[in-house]
Specification:
Elements lengths: L7 H17 L4 H11 L3 H7 L1 H23 L2 H20 L4 H12 L1 H33 L10 H19 L4
Helix pairs in contact: 1-7, 2-7, 3-4, 4-7, 4-8, 5-6, 5-7
Length: about 180
């Protein structure tokens, strides 16, 4: 089997490890202390230099790494083929919007793509889940120690999500990631 085809087993393993890390973060010092030792002077230094610009740089770095991993850890050609078939099905559905039976048949066919797409897309999750959980737990600690600062009037998680959506969409276009 092609290594890029994907499977749900590694995703579940990464999810279990991530949940364990998140729940043990404050209870097991050998999880959080090395992360603080590495990230406090580096990413923490960026945040102390300039909160908003530092966070934007961090989000850019995170999204750059995850986009590159997604591009090379997934079968981009298979994903493109699936998206092309889905688009053709959507066009066909528009033609049969007045025929409920044909619409149901086409929708059923389009639902068959979901497991394939998930398997192909989730492969990169196995590489990024644990580091992102560690990073988010560190964010929670660092921002609570800073008194829960605001980023352009938003909390850190909302600022992260919005800036991540914008930066990620730009990077996906630049790197031609499906």
């Amino acid at each position: 089997m092609d290594d890029k085809k994907g499977s749900f087993k590694p995703v579940f393993i990464a999810l279990i490890i991530s949940l364990a890390i998140a729940s043990l973060w404050n209870k097991v010092s050998w999880i959080s202390q090395p992360i603080h030792y590495i990230l406090d002077p580096t990413l923490g230094g960026l945040l102390r230099w300039n909160l908003v610009l530092g966070m934007i740089i961090i989000v850019l770095i995170i999204n750059l790494v995850t986009t590159i991993i997604q591009k090379y850890a997934t079968d981009q050609e298979a994903l493109k083929a699936i998206r092309k078939e889905q688009k053709a099905l959507q066009e066909e559905m528009k033609k049969f919007k007045d025929n409920p039976q044909k619409m149901m048949e086409l929708q059923k066919k389009s639902f068959e793509f979901i497991p394939q797409t998930m398997k192909l897309s989730m492969r990169s999750f196995t590489y990024t889940a644990v580091p992102l959980i560690l990073l988010f737990r560190w964010f929670m600690d660092i921002f609570s120690s800073m008194g829960s600062p605001k980023f352009l009037g938003m909390g850190w998680i909302l600022f992260y999500l919005l800036s991540s959506i914008i930066i990620s969409s730009i990077l996906r276009k630049v790197f031609k990631v499906v």
